[in-house]
Design goal:
Layout (H helix, E strand, L loop, with lengths): L12 H36 L5 E2 L4 E2 L2 H25 L3 H16 L1 H5 L4 H30 L1
Antiparallel strand pairs: 1-2
Helix pairs in contact: 1-2, 1-5, 2-3, 2-5, 3-5
Length: about 150
């Protein structure tokens, strides 16, 4: 008897695509958790050394929970962008890096225009870069492994 050794695969590309999207989303949510924790800890450290995070427009102080919520929200936006690019782009990793770096650069403008003191502005700029250094490489690497 001669076995050919045929291995059954998915009936269509739909299962494979769904697996890739779920894998990317899972990786993204783990990275979101890491970025949120890192950013909140960095903000707490900045507060510990005397950064007030007081924004003159309204005179309110940004709470630590605010850093966590905003980081989590925009990290999820990054995941949505990555998923869309995986689905509709021929080069999702390249497009994602270009888009994410551009959006990160744009996000640096509001702290500069806030009218806050130098320590607060510097800390806010740094706190924009913390989640970017977690999310962008993680999602780009995940996009490369899911399309290669």
């Amino acid at each position: 008897m001669n076995d050919i050794g045929v291995v059954a695969g998915p009936a269509s590309g739909r299962t494979s695509r769904t697996h890739r999207l779920r894998g990317l989303a899972g990786t993204g949510f783990i990275a979101t958790l890491a970025a949120t924790v890192a950013t909140t800890l960095a903000a707490a450290l900045a507060q510990a050394v005397g950064v007030a995070f007081e924004v003159p427009d309204g005179g309110e102080t940004i709470p630590l929970s605010g850093f966590a919520v905003v980081t989590g929200f925009f990290s999820v936006v990054g995941i949505v962008i990555a998923v869309a690019l995986l689905r509709w782009s021929a080069r999702p990793a390249e497009r994602f890096v270009w888009t994410a770096v551009t959006l990160t650069a744009i996000s640096l403008v509001p702290p500069l225009l806030s009218g806050a003191n130098t320590a607060t502005i510097t800390a806010l700029l740094g706190l924009h870069l913390v989640p970017a250094t977690v999310m962008i490489p993680t999602l780009a690497r995940s996009l490369r492994t899911r399309t290669g």
